[in-house]
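ESCALATION

Customer reports they have been waiting on this structure for their group meeting. Please prioritize. Original submission:
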Amino acid sequence: MQRITKRDKNEYKPFIYQTRTGQSAWAPAMKEAGKRILSFNRSQIMALPAIRSVFGFAVPLVLGFVTHQIPIGVAIAAGASLLGTIGMTSASRVRKRILIYACIGFSFSAFVGSFIGNSPILCVLAAGIWGIGGGLMVALGQVAQLVGLECTLSMLLFTRFATDPLHAFLQALLTLIGAFWQTLLALIPLPLPGTQTERSSMAALYRDLADYAAKPADEVLGRNVRESLLKVQNVLAESKLKSRKEKLSAALLEAGERIRLCLLQLDQIQQLYRERNETRKQADAIKQVFQASSIMLGQIAHILEPQSPWLRLVPQHYIIKQALTRLRKQLSQIETVVDVQQPLNLAESIRDQLHYARKLARAWRSGQTASIKLITPEQPYLRLRDPLSTLKANLSFRSTAFRHAIRLGVTLALATALYRLIPLPLQRGYWIPLTTLLVLKPDWSTTLSRGFARALGTILGAVITTFVIAVTDPHPILHVIFLILFAYVAYALLYANYSSFSLMVTVMTVLMLAFVTPQPLDLALFRALDTAIGGTLAMLAYFIWPTWEYRQIPDNIADRLSCLNAYLIAVLKAIENPDDYNEVNLQKARTETRLSRSNAETSVQRARNEPFPHTLNSAAIDGTLQAADNIAGSALILEGALLNKRFVQVCEELEPFRQRVDTALQEFVHAIKEQRSPAPLPSFKEELDTLERWRKVRHLTEEERAARYLLVTEIKHIIDNISIIHNLLSKRS
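Update from on-call: job pushed to the front of the queue and completed.
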């Protein structure tokens, strides 16, 4: 591949295209925010799980009403209400552990809020601390973010019910009882397969991959694949990968990631062929490969669907076989100087991964055994998505998650001070920090859309609660019935539409408070005013300390590759000479690579919704980050083997490969920062042949043979992903 010339060097940007004028950039962003407010995803309605959650909420409420102990019933129901949302999101096998953590955090937060409620200074300080802690949870995924949000919500809300330490403890104990009651219900299996969450999310991933393979140029379909991958990764991040089904899940995820990487690269080649008159027939042949892949991916998704009928689907392997035959024929007719082997290798890799994924899916559904090609570190903290390691790595101002946490903490402290320290004519001023907490998010688009959704929900909620309180005032039983109905709708629409969820939560909160304290009709106006103030504070906080990310994407991805290179080279050096193994240095390098990964992924996610004149090259970005994750996974596996003393002898044969890898990854970093195409990638054949001969030496023990096989296998994996990154960063001509 030719090196890029000096004349067009400044024109080449592998990750960002400038396509819109600055003045018109805000319009699409505002339009996108409006779509988020009005969008309603029917597939995300959780009607059945909502029944279980609302039952846990309703029982203590009804018992409190029947026994004339309404305050006690409301306190227990409050503990059950927030835990109900978490019980619907976690995988079944890890739900207990997450819910127990949430129970403790929620109840402790309630105790602190009640205990310090009479001290404005302590309330402001606690709001800042809880805001930082809750904001930092965004680095750990959706479930952790929800736990952090609800613990902070609990602390802020219970400052309204300030009391002495003993009664604060009793209030927290009541909420703990409600939380544990909801936890017990969440552990009861629904009348669905035990792996409903895992299989449903995996089926959705393969269904989205099938749609993307049918139309690879559709950016919406590409975004759907990214979101499905993130959901599956979050589910598996909670797994210890011990059981057979957990290993099947991880293997299917790995196969899906590899298929996606190959599709991304093959689509780039198809676009290149389509631009040339002499290679359009070859582009049509590649399109057939995509269509065949889409059919097979759809079949895999059908097999994985928990509730789909068990049909004897006609195997479609002949379709991909025919597509490959045509592609070989068309590529053999190319007379121009282009790389004809690369698209063929990618298509064959897709075929192999499709067959493998189909076997895994059938084994999962039927309960049969399957050969799982999955190697993971034995030490949980060495896994790529280990939560505790990720959290530690983000405790730095270099972390975008940490900066968001600081911004949220400061804004919550300011919002609390506004009604606790300043003598403003505000009633129920705690709605100000509550709104700020619910609106202020890490990215601009979500903050904007949730701000409008929250305002809309509060205004409509004020109207609805005014009507409900007026109607049910003479009939308390109607008050309970309405509250339970609104709770069910809120749970069911948790992920379907945030505006509707916000509306229901507003009504729920006010109706629950009406049991404990009077709610005059004129308070609706004050709630609307407090909501407007809290939403405005959240918007101002983002604009005062923004985290616009699109300019940082190249640097963040380059930093990701640089830190990954440092960690990988440190591991390879330790394998070369095990006596030089330095656990402290390796831990530092591992922490840096986790932080760089978190920053790069967060930067890309936020940049996609920013109101600036840019369009992201999703194929290059997603493919590069995924390949980097694959290399990091191999490095973690090798470090795990080091810790288990599997490499005890000096391996001088590894040095040439290490040097070649170091050169290649450093070249990628320089190419990204200098906005140019990377230099041609040297062949690793000689180094790989040397390592293969080293692996096949006779008179080895079984342990030595297994260790050498592991090393060579992961080295091949590293080489494949280095080649992927080079192809994605290279300017095609």
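Sent to customer with the following note: Residues 1-10, 20-24 have pLDDT under 50 and may be disordered.
Escalation resolved.
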